[in-house]
Structure prediction request, 734 residues.
Amino acid sequence: MKVDKQASSPFGHYELPAGNALSRRSFLQAGAASSGGLLLSLILPIAGDQANAGTDLDFMPNAFVRIGSDGKITLTMPYVEMGQGTYTAIPMLVAEELEVQLSQVVLEHAPPNEKLYANPLLGVQATGNSNAIRGAWEPLRNAGATARIMLVAAAAKRWKVDPGTCRAERGEVVHAMTGQRLAYGKIAADAARIAVPPSVQLKSPEDFKLIGTPAKRLDTPAKVNGSAVYGIDARPPGVKIATLAQSPVFGGRVKRVHDAAAKAVNGVHQIVQLQDAVAVVADHMGAAKKGLEALVIEWDNGPHATLDTDTILAELERATLNPGVIAQSIGQVERAMADAAIKVEAIYRVPFLAHAAMEPMNCTVDLRADGCEIWVGSQALARAQAAAAEAAGLPVNKVVVHNHLIGGGFGRRLEVDGVTRAVEIAKHVKGPVKVVWTREEDVQHDMYRPMFFDRISAGLDKHGMPLAWNNRFAGSSIVARWLPPGFNNGLDSDTTEGAINLVYDLPNLNVEYVRVEPPGIPTAFWRSVGPSHNVFVTESFMDELAVAAKQDPVEYRLALLEKSPRAKAVLQLAADKAGWGQKLPPGIGRGVSVQNAFGSYMAQVAEVEVAEDGTVRVRRVVCAVDCGIVINPDTVQAQIQSAVIFGTTAALYGEITLRDGRVEQTNFDTYQILRMNQTPAVEVYIVQSSEAPGGMGEAGTSCIVPAVSNAIFAATGKRLRHMPVDESILRRPS
Prediction:
């Protein structure tokens, strides 16, 4: 089948390869069988027992749903669970249309298969960009509805009645006039012989029974009782444990290794030396770490031995002195700026940030001459499989992948460097080996949220309202490396999201992007990557304009939101619930931010206290969100709470710095995470909406940072244009 067409993606437009394109009908007939001889043996803990492999008696109308003759309903899950509630919300989509209870659906991880399980919004098999629900919204409901219609048709055929007189409910087909009932399992084989309907009618929102209800997380019990299996828990028989030291300077190499003391450690089996890393293989992690500490490694630091953060920052600053690629242009900015009564200029910057997930990078590999088996938690399973095959020198269909729950992804596990490294080590080890990075390796060899530098200016009329808006910024494009077709003419939609298509009515606007890739430090997606930078800049600067106009920050924004009713509604709601305008004690301030990111509208009000010594404490955060149709309101609330903590951490503490080519931060003592006693009270208010679902996993992270910085200004009168917070600037004289 050859189909060539343009596909839309959050990263822009790209060409779908002819070999990967599927019509709806051929997709629904594709079935759930894996390609290339792959075997996926892992069943999620929440399934309760081992799901049966497909048989000739199973009903598999599409790539997602399988119904056995025993009545078991299995959803082949194309997305991964890393704490965001995907393994509860997405089954709700299928169960809603299939007319079964959520408890009747068990889950299997989808095998690596770009053709069947590619995220329709990305064009690749991946979980990220807050689009699991957005990508699954129609395909998964279609999958459930298709199965339901075919089951009803099969029952009607057996009863010799009109299908229109039958209905599906609670896993059965019911004939209304006679009261006859058939469980799905009883007619699964018959349904498998029914032609796949070319189109199906999906439910209207007013008919939803599950969607929109607060369903309990299906993965919680296993995580609480300890039976949940993460990548780091994988333990095939005979597995050895390895940990490693990689070149402390990116691009460096191993010069020589003195390993006698390491080999003498009880439990150490062998030392594996690679070009740029050394691994210690042992019976357990304790022995491996002791062996690693005993190693004496001499490094050739390579071309980046003198690199530091200031050098990278200076390069970005220079880059913004020259024109960039125009990301958005409206009106006549230069003419409007010349007519402005008030002009405001500012320079903003954001640092490199690490992911610092609680589960450090790890991968277990069993490499044999005739094949390779890996156990991993990955956001991009097909890429993990391909990376293992390339490193092992094997055909892709000789690599078996077991994907597991992820103990924190945040974009880090969209990368496959950990898989490649584990296979490189496994080449030297007999039998399976689990490679676990220490916390220090995880922090110092992360792939980081890029550093950005912005020059931004605006011109206001005599009433203080914006006439012109000009923003030029420089930094890395992750999409250009990770998904090259998404980087077109010097732009990608991730890098520019939050800087263009603003919710505000700005008559003259110019936004330019200059791509600058930092030498010697790898960049990657980080929870709310582009917006995490752009929303901080635009919303902090919007606050500056309100101050220049001598207007209240909320009222100023509301005046610019007449053409964006969804943004206006969330701002009004958040401000009202936060008690905006009510007097606060000295040293405490409220700050606000508004955004449209990841398909959702959000406003946050942060209440911040600044002590005399400059210490900042975020006391309270009020968030209003319009994320379209809500699948599970409990998940929405949890994701906002989580994102607020993640973003507040970045605002107060987050910064990766380099000196002499080395990352200076090593562990949670030098790369601090918000503690439980520092966590603010978070209130979430959800606006009822009939729009298609928006993304929720990352939106709260980008929205909170400017709300905090604006609150600090309200409390102290000091404007912070660089995160994280510099307490020395805020310290009051004694």
About this structure: The two ends are 76 Å apart (CA to CA). The CA atoms of residues 606 and 708 lie 6 Å apart. The first strand starts at residue 6 and ends at 9.
